[in-house]
Design brief:
The chain is α+β, with helices and mostly antiparallel strands and about 475 residues long. The protein has 11 helices and 28 strands. It has 3 domains: about 280 residues, FAD/NAD(P)-binding domain (3-Layer(bba) Sandwich), CATH 3.50.50.60; about 100 residues, Alpha-Beta Plaits (2-Layer Sandwich), CATH 3.30.70; about 80 residues, Glutaredoxin, CATH 3.40.30. Strand 19 and strand 20 form a beta hairpin. The chain is globular and about 70 Å long. The mean pLDDT is about 95. The structure holds flavin-adenine dinucleotide. Pfam families: FAD_binding_3, Rng_hyd_C. InterPro entries: FAD-bd (IPR002938), FAD/NAD-bd_sf (IPR036188), RIFMO-like (IPR050641).
């Protein structure tokens, strides 16, 4: 083998995955088609669960530094917003951060850990056999082959890896066409009454089933402007948007172009929504947009990619390192596919509610009223932040399958946090010992409130209880998630 794992795509998912693999001593190669990082920022935010995951690796401060914190978000641009302050986490906020910066920090992390990254190199063909995969890569000096144990397609919504592996990508065809610009306005913007807490400017044109909104970004005077048109399909989604097209679209809805100027980026979007039927096909795996695409309502995409990578990284490394089995690797699909399905449902719901068709007024008003109910607001906030993700893991204890609460640990040297014990990417055990798994599970020497817990490297509890009363359960969980004893 030239490498243990070939990671196709050096976007946020690929870089996060490469770092996780390196942390576990695995040798990944990242191939990225673009010679230089994509200069524009699709995503603008990092959610609470992603911040927690970065904290598990001790790198969240780099992301928090200088980034504005958001105390709330929106659901389908309804007038009642989501309250992040209600979240039970050490990070009850969202982070405003441009995707270019997120990617830069993730790339730096992967490089620090010794990842080999080849830019300007594209996967063009793929074959797998019993022992590994053979990938054909086209680089600046021509075509060459790479042999690796596994390949992970982190190559975005149009994933070549997914297509070459023959994994179906079923879903919903687009019915919403959106033009988007990061830009400035020299003229007056219309007040966007009733367009939600984050969209102070805009116009709703029910007659056209269309709307325009301009969301101020944190850079002074810069907006993310969007024109939504329902019942509209782009004849060619890849056709570049021109300034004239954007100007005409705004003028049609608002009556004037609001002095559109200072355009930084123009693009077109749709509400196409698809999910890979399988996240694993033998030695080929998919993560991030390669596994799921959807409209960016609430901004879950990049976040879900990081969370996929965090779920997959340690499992794939365990298999490469010889103590993980096929069942452990299959649990990646079993756990993450339902999460993706729920996120797709959430974004489709929001796309349906964005539709200004007057026949949907009653539904929008009902959802607005529901959002005033704390528990409902909390439900959508938990969903949007991914803090409520739970895996269906074996075990009776209510904590099993939930994300680990970041509790205080009382040690002779002072108070630490449980999250600090995850920096090396091992599992963590509190309130018990696991001598025979000491190379894979770190034991917390200190007092932690509540039951003893066995936590996986991705921060999910896989056993909780009393180690004396349920020693058999603890032993079973150690074997399931951390392989045979030494
Ligand atoms: C307008 C907009 C706003 C968004 N806002 C948010 C938001 O606020 N929050 C959020 O979480 N998400 C948001 N998203 C979604 C987010 O941008 C994506 O989910 C995220 O970029 C996915 O990361 P990825 O690494 O999986 O894929 P990508 O970012 O698509 O990266 C894939 C990489 O693979 C490379 N590649 C492709 N094919 C090959 C090949 N054959 N060989 C080698 N390399 C290849 C590509 O060049 C690319 O660099 C938004 C998206 C859009 C369009």
């Amino acid at each position: 083998m030239d490498y243990d794992v070939l990671v196709v795509g050096g976007g946020p998912t690929g870089m996060m995955l490469a770092a996780e693999l390196r942390l576990a001593g695995v040798r990944p190669l990242v191939v990225e088609r673009l010679a230089r990082p994509y200069p524009f920022s699709k995503a603008l935010g990092i959610h609470a669960r992603s911040i927690e995951l970065l904290e598990l690796r001790g790198i969240h401060d780099r992301f928090l530094e200088g980034a504005p914190l958001l105390s709330g978000g929106h659901f389908a641009s309804l007038p009642v917003g989501l309250n992040y302050k209600s979240l039970e986490t050490r990070h009850p906020y969202g982070l405003y951060q441009k995707q270019v910066d997120t990617e830069r920090l993730l790339t730096a992390r992967a490089e620090e850990l010794g990842t080999e990254i080849r830019r300007g190199h594209e996967l063009t063909a793929l074959a797998q056999d019993e022992d590994g995969v053979t990938a054909t890569i086209t680089g600046p000096d021509g075509e060459y082959r790479v042999r690796a144990g596994y390949v992970v397609g982190c190559d975005g919504g149009r994933s070549r890896t997914r297509k070459l592996a023959g994994i179906p990508f079923p879903g919903q065809e687009p019915g919403l066409a959106v033009l988007m610009a990061d830009c400035e306005f020299s003229g007056e913007l219309p007040e966007g009454e009733g367009m939600g807490p984050l969209r102070p400017y805009g116009v709703i044109r029910r007659d056209l089933r269309a709307w325009f909104s301009a969301v101020p970004l944190f850079e002074p005077g810069v907006y993310r402007a969007m024109v939504f048109r329902y019942d509209h399909v782009w004849p060619d989604r890849d056709q570049p948007v021109t300034e004239e097209e954007m100007r005409a679209a705004i003028t049609e809805l608002v009556g004037h172009d609001c002095g559109l100027t200072g355009i930084q980026w123009l693009t077109r979007l749709t509400d196409v929504s698809r999910q890979a039927e399988r996240y694993r096909e033998g030695r080929v795996l998919l993560a991030g947009d390669a596994a799921h695409v959807h409209f960016p309502s609430g901004g879950p995409g990049l976040n879900m990619g990081l969370q996929d990578a965090m779920n997959l990284g340690w499992k794939l490394a365990a298999v490469v390192n010889g103590w993980g089995d096929g069942a452990l690797l299959d649990s990646y699909h079993t756990e993450r596919h339902p999460v993706g399905r729920t996120v797709l449902r959430n974004t489709r719901t929001q796309c349906a509610l964005f539709d200004p068709d007057p026949r949907l007024d009653a539904v929008r008003e009902t959802f607005t009223d529901l959002l005033r109910i704390d528990q409902v607001n909390r439900y959508f906030t938990g969903l949007g932040s991914a803090l409520d993700v739970r895996y269906d893991l074996p075990g009776e204890h209510p904590l099993t399958g939930a994300r680990m609460p970041d509790l205080d640990v009382w040690t002779p040297d002072g108070v630490r946090r449980l999250s600090e014990y995850f920096h090396d990417g091992l599992g963590v055990l509190t309130g018990a010992s696991a001598e025979k798994w000491k190379d894979r599970v770190a034991v917390v020497e200190g007092e932690v409130e509540g039951p003893a817990m066995l936590v996986r490297p991705d921060g999910y509890v896989c056993w909780a209880g009393d180690p004396v009363e349920d020693g058999v359960g603890l032993d079973a969980a150690l074997r399931t998630w951390f392989g045979p004893p030494l």
